[in-house]
Write a structure and sequence with these properties.
Elements lengths: L1 H28 L6 E4 L1 E4 L3 E9 L4 E11 L5 E8 L6 E5 L5 E14 L3 E10 L3 E7 L7 E3 L11 H4 E2 L1 E5 L5 E3 L4 E3 L4 E9 L1 E12 L5 E8 L6 E6 L2 E7 L5 E3 L3 E10 L4 E5 L7 E4 L10 H4 E2 L1 E5 L2 E6 L6 E2 L4 E2 L3 E4 L2 E4 L5 E11 L6 E11 L3 E6 L5 E9 L2 E5 L4 E3 L4 E4 L13 E4 L2 E3 L13 H12 L18 H12 L8
Helix pairs in contact: 4-5
Length: about 500
């Protein structure tokens, strides 16, 4: 029994010694840690950038070979070359032929001692498009590893501690910054003017200067996009300076974002919203502080315009020559083109008129004329009047071959739309100067061909001449507008001659 016990004891001791030797061998195999490998980061405003791959170790590590694999976004950048760092011995090879993958191998005939941070390799990237490509080490156990001269693999577990990522950012040009092309406002109105940006990528600093006419706009306040801390000040009348530095790393905004909004009171008139750029007064920088390209200035900074709103006058009137009682509206004026009778104007437009604003106190003074206004078949014409002509005016309506008629009273032109309907009564025209066209329907007299304010033989003569020559087309002698000159045109003229029709004014 004692002999058996001794044999078993010796066997257990041998197993323990074997395990200790195995553990010692394993410990010796990983007696060193791999160096920490760091991919650098860089932001470039150009088309090429070089990124360092550095190694460091404490205590010093002895390396004789390594494999590295780095993944990146090939839609942003393209790796084109890998170069050994200065003073790095040995031989190396690399492969960048697969988009988004960089493979590097290095070997040396002796141990190379690594301690302080050393540039091991540099990788050159070309720009594909603006954006950031992260540089990530990919380690499946063999794709990233270090060995010493005895081919002992150095410890690099966990990999996230030993292989640190970096990035390459290709910064584009300066963002495009623009005001609305046109803002329409009425005097006394508060207006908001947004400053819109596109391609606002990784921006670290903003400097903008804008100018406007201070008599047209009074600056009130401003609000900035909360993503970017901006100072906004009116430094002198008509000049606003905008500036700020990103609170953290570069700020990016979606295309079409509002960087800030300026608030004004509109006083009337027209002013440009202009970016003033003397080289540095309008400028963007990336988060590394580098100014971004913005030349030519007109391609990067879009000006705007503030113009006055128009006051609206809604008129309704009928023309005797075009009025069709069966339809209770006017026929469309015709033309004669290529041997065919065609509509002169598209859609529901019957013909064109001019509208004059005459001074309430002195009718002979024409303050403003709106020309070539669409007169629709239903008699409606919409006239837009610039706001500087607000006030009370007689409205005089002129047509190419009808008697000019005047509103019976002065009409108020202002922010509230003015409505005036000549058709409901003869006395809606000054001096009751309208003709009844149907029951309860009134319109302007036809036949003033020469537009002298009288319908007489001087108007009938040209019409009769046109009849004899079988004239056609959109002519002033075509009283009923059907494109043909005939007795249907001379009839209304002769009737109104007998009635001694003429223009009546205040």
């Amino acid at each position: 029994m004692l002999l058996i016990y001794n044999i078993k004891t010796q066997a257990v001791k041998k197993n323990i010694v074997f395990i200790l030797i195995l553990n010692l061998a394993t410990s010796l195999a990983f007696s060193q840690n791999a160096p920490i490998t760091q991919a650098g980061s860089a932001i470039s405003t150009g088309n090429t950038v070089t990124i360092p791959i550095t190694i460091s170790s404490s205590p010093a590590a002895n390396i004789a070979s390594c494999n590295l694999r780095i993944l990146y976004d090939a839609s942003i950048a393209s790796a084109v070359q890998v170069t050994k760092g200065p003073g790095i011995p040995g031989n190396y090879n690399y492969n960048v032929s697969s988009a988004g993958v960089i493979t590097i191998g290095w070997y040396h005939s002796n141990n190379f001692s690594v301690s302080a941070s050393t540039v091991f390799f540099t990788i050159t990237f070309n720009k594909v498009t603006s954006g950031t490509a992260n540089l990530i080490f990919f380690d499946n156990g063999n794709t990233c590893k270090y060995s010493d001269i005895n081919s002992v693999v150095l410890n690099d577990v966990p990999a996230s501690t030993y292989y640190l990522p970096g990035s390459v950012t290709f910064q584009g040009d300066a963002p495009k910054t623009a005001f609305p092309a046109e803002i329409i406002a009425c005097p006394g109105e508060s207006i908001a003017v947004p400053v819109m940006v596109t391609d606002f990528n990784t921006i670290g600093a903003v400097s903008l200067t804008m100018a406007f006419v201070p008599s047209v706009l009074s600056y009130v306040s401003a609000t900035a996009n909360p993503a970017f801390d901006l100072e906004i000040d009116q430094t002198s009348p008509g000049v606003i300076i905008i500036g700020g530095i990103a609170a953290s790393t570069g700020v990016s905004l979606p295309n079409g974002s509002t960087l800030l909004t300026l608030y004004f009171t509109y006083n009337g008139g027209t002013t440009g919203l202009s970016w003033y750029d003397n080289g540095t007064s309008c400028e963007y920088a990336n988060d590394m502080g580098y100014a971004l390209p913005d030349i030519p200035q007109s391609e990067y900074y879009g000006d705007g315009l503030v113009i006055p709103c128009n006051y609206q006058v809604n008129l309704k009137l009928f023309l005797e020559g075009l009025y069709n009682p069966a339809l209770s509206e006017m026929n469309k004026a015709k033309d004669f083109v290529g041997g065919n009778i065609v509509d002169k104007y598209a859609g529901k437009v019957a013909d064109k008129i001019d509208v004059e604003l005459h001074s309430e106190g002195n009718y002979g003074t024409i303050v403003y004329t709106a020309s070539n206004i669409d007169l629709n078949q239903n008699g409606v014409a919409i006239v837009n009047i610039p706001p500087e002509y607000s006030g009370n005016y007689y409205l005089t309506i002129r047509h190419r071959n009808h008697i000019a008629s005047v509103s019976a009273l002065a009409v108020t032109i202002g922010p509230a739309a003015a409505n005036y309907d000549f058709t409901i009564s003869a006395d809606k025209a000054f001096g009751n100067n309208q003709k009844q066209l149907a029951a309860g329907i009134f319109g302007f007299y036809a036949g003033d061909v020469n537009q002298d304010g009288l319908i007489n033989i001087n108007d009938a003569g040209p019409v009769n001449t046109g009849i004899r020559s079988a004239a056609t087309g959109y002519l002033t002698i075509d009283i009923n507008g059907d494109g043909l000159i005939n007795i249907n045109d001379s009839g209304p003229v002769n009737t109104n001659i007998r009635s001694v029709v003429q223009s009546i004014t205040p």
